[in-house]
Amino acid sequence: MKLTLQVWRQERADAPGSLQTYVVDDISPDESFLEMLDVLNERLEEKGERPIAFDHDCREGICGACSMMVNGQAHGPRTRTTTCQLHMREFDDGDVILIEPWRATAFPVIQDLMVDRFAFDRIIQAGGYISVNTGSAPEANLMMVPKDDADLAFDGATCIGCGACVAQCPNTAAQLYTAAKIGHLNLYPQGQPERDERTVGMVEQMESELFGSCSNFRECEAVCPKGISIDWIARMNRDYLKAKLKGVNRR
Amino acid sequence: MTQSLNSQVPSGPLETKWLNYRDHLKLVAPNNRRKFEILVVGSGLAGASAAATLGEAGYNVKCFCFQDSPRRAHSISAQGGINAAKNYRNDGDSTFRLFYDTIKGGDFRSREANVYRLAEVSNEIIDQAVAQGVPFAREYGGLLDNRSFGGAQVARTFYARGQTGQQLLLGAYQALSRQIAAGTVKMFPRTEMLDVVVDEGRARGIVTRDLVTGAVESHAGHAVVLATGGYSNVYYLSTNAMACNATAIWRAHRRGAMLANPCFTQIHPTCIPQSGENQSKLTLMSESLRNDGRIWVPTSADDTRAARDIPESDRDYYLERRYPSFGNLVPRDVASRNAKSVVDEGRGVGALKNGVYLDFADAIGRLGRDAIEEKYGNLFEMYERITGENPYGVPMRIYPAPHYTMGGLWVDYNMMSNVDGLFVIGEANFSDHGANRLGASALMQGLADGYFVLPYTLASYLAPHLGERVATDTEPFRKTEAEVSGLIRGFLDSKGKRTVDSFHRELGHIVRDECGMSRSEPGLKKALEKIPALREEFHENLNLSGGDGLNLSLERAGRVADFFELAELMCIDALDRRESCGGHFREESQTQEGEAKRDDENFTHVSAWEYTGNLSEPKLHKEALDFEAVQLTQRSYK
Amino acid sequence: MTWFSNLYQHAIVKKAIMAVSGLFFFGWLAGHLLGNLKVFQGADKFNAYAEFLRTMGTPLLPESGVLWLVRGLLTAAIILHIWSATSLTLLNRRARTSDYEKRQGLQLDYAARTMRWSGYLVAFYIVYHLMHLTWGNVHHDFIPGDPYANLVSGFQVVPIALVYIGANILLGFHLYHGLWSLFQSLGLAHPAYNPWRRHFAITFSIVMSLGFISIPVAVLTGVIS
Fold first, then answer.
1. A116 touches chain B (CB under 8 A)
2. How high is the pLDDT of residue B374?
3. What dihedral angle (degrees, nearest 10) is formed by the CA atoms of C208, C213, C214, C218?
4. Chain C within 8 Å of A216 (Cβ-Cβ)?
5. Residue of C218, B550, C100, B163 lying closest to A55 (CA atoms)
6. Residues A182-191, buried b or exposed e (16+ Cβ, 10 A)?
7. Model confidence pLDDT, tens digit, residues B390-433
8. B398 and B479 belong to one structural domain
9. Residue C167 within a domain
10. Max CA separation in chain C (angstroms)
């Protein structure tokens, strides 16, 4: 396959960036999208040019590192698929492919397609845990969790923290990420003592990271590689409003 | 410097060793803990659990990871599950049984006391994870579900769909995040450790590089904990994440820490075969597929027909034929080795003839498509996404891939290496899996080390050092920092022709061919000639562009340089170990039927290698393995 | 008071305020449509209904008391609705300062995408509607006290009738996304009734839109004269 790539190149966070055009040929349809970029990068290196920077690691769709807009869609055209699991057979010979980084004030570009997503970690630090010191846990089967709750909680817990929801959202909102994380812990009996503080802490941290607000566009759900539903957002709104009406503020 | 290998295993009966030992370890009082600085390198299951636990206790912890977030450490990719001796199924499981299965699975090449302790704390791990909200699978009664995994005769594996690793890691990551918020742990993401600072035989700190700015910095601590994972990427193609590397342990090795059993690597049987030269990594498919899939290749090497057109009479179900009682469910090492031998005979399948069929046609015929879809639907979907082939219609193609490394830095019973103050936990150490790791025990070991072992032994190490000043303004720090900067400068100045990846690919080929599933003296000797030569070319003919800021090629160059050195030691170790054991088939050591033959008389020991300054002449130290509680037996799956 | 000031500054609360004020409009619109449909019963019934709105609540309340109360609440609701929308829009602008070359819409429907513009246009339309049929400032032949005559003569001007029809189509879209969306914003979601949220929003917005449109159409076609 021969492809024309238009790739966002940006030297540093504070440098201006622009789209650059590259032609790559001899690409097999069995290669993954990132392997296609590897090939391009190796050729750039051979020519003494700086390779394109992008985040990636496990290449199995679970670590959540890979992050790029492919033809205007976070992670590219295949649903429920991270960029690393996208294969070139999804494209046609001669295609022009536009590749951009996640764009969000909260995710500043580091270089090219690589962005800083530490805002997500700070949201977890604001309450995305159950406070249990090592050694103080009771016997595991003392806490019974209805299977339906456990299964539902799991759906939220599958989030890989890639940020596609933020990237695709017209409002640049991080509601799906935050809601999935809150929802998982708030469904568990272990999560109840800190439920209100957790919800308020994480939501308000999310706001202070300069993410946008939710207009119920549902773009996040459509692009989430784990298929996480916007029902989680409703659940978070409910938990948050309840906590606020009780007068719970951030610690 | 002469090194003695004292495993520090306490005396007394196996069952009470750890408890008694714990009772007599030294303690650090809560008000004194904040006076200690601990450096934890790595944020996977072992690193995150250790950093969080030490933070909760009140120590000052700095935690480093090269990923953009601690949540992305490669532990996240583990699929299957985690073992514990809870005996919730009332099927006769016990601490002893879990211990015995693990030590037998490791082909009697691990330290008895360590393995027993691992089994002992396994239950606490489950308690801890559940309390953290880890969403393990449950039954309708609301209690935890278990399954049998990897051929175990009891159902002791706790699991969370196909992503137990991610869920356990998120539990540890959340605990770590809580400590970051509390200020006890300071996190350094996108920061790679490039050296250990050792002064007068004691680890004083580390030198790191900020992967965004390129700044080289020193960090001093009362103790250094390496939790940096395994080195499967020495093979270039493995199931490890792209950036998994051996740099931390290799740098520690060069500073005096011994590397134990480096040739013990695990090759997982059910991975998707390579599809082309540009392939960057291999993907593992859960081993559970072997429960229903039948493995076969064509009888004839010249068969070019499509799988469905090959009649039963022209198919060789080689595992069922050779191992009638275990069939397709033989252990990982046996399945892997047999796949390699049929592919080497030229009977491989697929365009590159580099796989074997894993066929579900019989199972679909017997149980129906729906039943198969319910069991393996997500795996089939993953396979289809990667290969473009529909496994409901055509058989899957699988081939073994490097997956886990049992070898690692040598540690004593306290998880401390032979360098004072340098602790090593998780996959980075060698301690618990011997020559072969059982399914669902990697997660168990990482968390056992981080949550329940290190916090005790580290405190005991620290106690006498109360009040000692740690600082980076000393000569050893300046010297190490200058060496690291010099190394980086050297890479940046290289003006050769070949890219880092082309060297890594070639190195991977050599190690895979000669130090993979099957090894022989001539092959290893050949590798020992090729590797140093290629390494020399690497240092002379490397093409590296970019500057000293964010530079992904530079990062890879440093890692590949260390893989080159490690690869040679792996081959030296493999050459020295003239026995077949675990996943390692030594061609000179086989039974008449061509099965692996262990040599207990000469090799019931740990091979710990000391760096001598000459990569080709490391010094071997042996730690004899004494077995008090178990009888050494030969495994048989006929 | 700190409880309140802490409350209103948060995005999810603003969104809830938007939802609750929107909900108030839905209720009011339903009543407004029911009343307006009396126009099909003739001038007397319609004018009597208008009179009833003024005298409702008397003698307990002064004349037009209820009417002004409702008007007051509506004004407050509209201010809150627009304030929260504007404030959230500003927040969203700040959240992405450099935009994509291209961003594909996936599940984003027309109504959702045009919420902001349909909102502004409907606001303009409301002002126009009040000036036209309540206060008469822009009506060519306004007769105080005879709403029926004002309505008929107003809609007999074809461009004005078309403005009303167009505005109510827009209103329909705005109602549709708003109504569905308010369930989400107030946290009302459950697999058992989730599909019904969508059905309800579609039905309600179509009924409202067609109901209001039927009046100018009836005048134009001579059904009402």
1. yes
2. 83
3. 160
4. yes
5. B550
6. bbbbbbbebb
7. 999 999 999 999 999 999 999 999 999 999 999 999 999 999 99
8. no
9. yes
10. 64
**In a shared domain, residues B482 and B372:** no
Q: Answer whether A134 sits within 8 Å of B141, measured CB to CB.
A: no
Examine the domain organization and report whether B388 and B506 are in the same domain.
Answer: no
CATH number of the domain at B508, please: 1.20.58.100
In chain A the beta strands, taken as DSSP E runs, fall at 3-10, 17-24, 69-70, 73-74, 96-100, 109-111, 114-115
pLDDT tier at B287, thresholds 50, 70, 90: confident
Contact residues of C toward A, CB < 8 A: 3, 6-7, 10-16, 88, 91-92, 94-108, 112-113, 115, 177, 180-181, 183-191, 194
- What ipTM does this complex have? 0.98
State pTM to two decimals. 0.97
Q: Which residue from C minimizes the CA distance to A249?
A: C6
Using the predicted structure, report yes or no on whether residue A172 has a pLDDT greater than 80: yes
Cis ω for the linkage preceding C59 (within 30 of 0): yes
Residue-level pLDDT at B3 = 54
| CB distance B71 to B93 below 8 Å | no
Tell me whether residues C103 and A72 touch, CB distance under 8 A: yes
Residue C225 lies in a domain: no
C2 lies in some domain: no
The verdict on residue B456 lying in a domain is no
Structural domain count of chain C: 1
* B297 occurs within a structural domain: yes
Candidate from A203, A212, A223 with C-beta closest to C91: A212
Q: In 3D, which of B512, B389, B474, B411 has the Cα closest to residue B46? A: B411
Q: Is the pLDDT of residue B2 over 50?
A: no
Residue % of chain A over a pLDDT of 70:
100
* pLDDT the model gives residue B162: 85
Owning domain of residue C111: 8-96+107-220
Q: Is A14 on the interface with B (CB under 8 A)?
A: no
Contact (CB, 8 A) for A181 and A232: no
Query: Domain check: are B482 and B597 in the same one?
Result: yes
Confidence of residue B634 (pLDDT cuts 50, 70, 90): confident
Residue among A203, A237, A249 whose CB faces C186 most closely: A237
Q: Does residue B201 contact residue B491 with C-beta atoms inside 8 Å?
A: no
Nearest to A139 among B127, B167, B552 (CB): B127
Domain count along chain B: 2
B276 close contact with A: CB closer than 8 A: yes
Name all chains with 3 or more CB-CB pairs below 8 Å to chain B: A
Interface of A with C in 86-115 (CB under 8 A): 98, 100, 103-106
Across the interface, whether the CB atoms of C91 and A239 are under 8 A apart is answered no
B402, B434, B462 — which closes off a domain? Answer: B402
In this structure, is residue B11 part of a structural domain? no
A74 and A18 in contact (C-beta within 8 Å)? no
Size of interface A-C (CB pairs under 8 A): 135
Given CA atoms B138, B142, B143, B148 in this order, what sign does their dihedral have? negative
Residue B5: what pLDDT?
87
Q: Residue B485: which domain range?
A: 475-603
CB C177 to CB A239 under 8 A? no
Ordered by where they begin, the domains of chain A are 3-111 (3.10.20.30), 117-245 (1.10.1060.10)
Boundary (domain end) residue, out of B352, B374, B402: B402
Q: Per the CB < 8 Å rule, is B130 touching A190?
A: yes
Distance CA A94, CA A103 (A): 27
- Average pLDDT for B5-30: 96
Is residue B149 in a domain? no
Cβ contact C103–A69 (<8 Å): yes
Chains in contact with chain A (at least 3 beta-carbon pairs closer than 8 A): B, C
pLDDT at B438: 87
* Chain C residues whose beta carbon lies within 8 Å of the beta carbon of residue A237: 12, 15-16, 184-187
* Mean pLDDT, range B185-195, rounded to an integer: 98
Asked whether the predicted pLDDT for residue B56 surpasses 50, the reply is yes
Digit-coded pLDDT (tens) for B467-505? 999 999 999 999 999 999 999 999 999 999 999 999 999
Closest CA to B594 of B310, B344, B243, B226: B344
Averaged over B452-475, what is the pLDDT?
Answer: 97
Instruction: Report percent pLDDT > 70 for chain B.
Output: 99
CATH number of the domain bearing residue C69: 1.20.1300.10
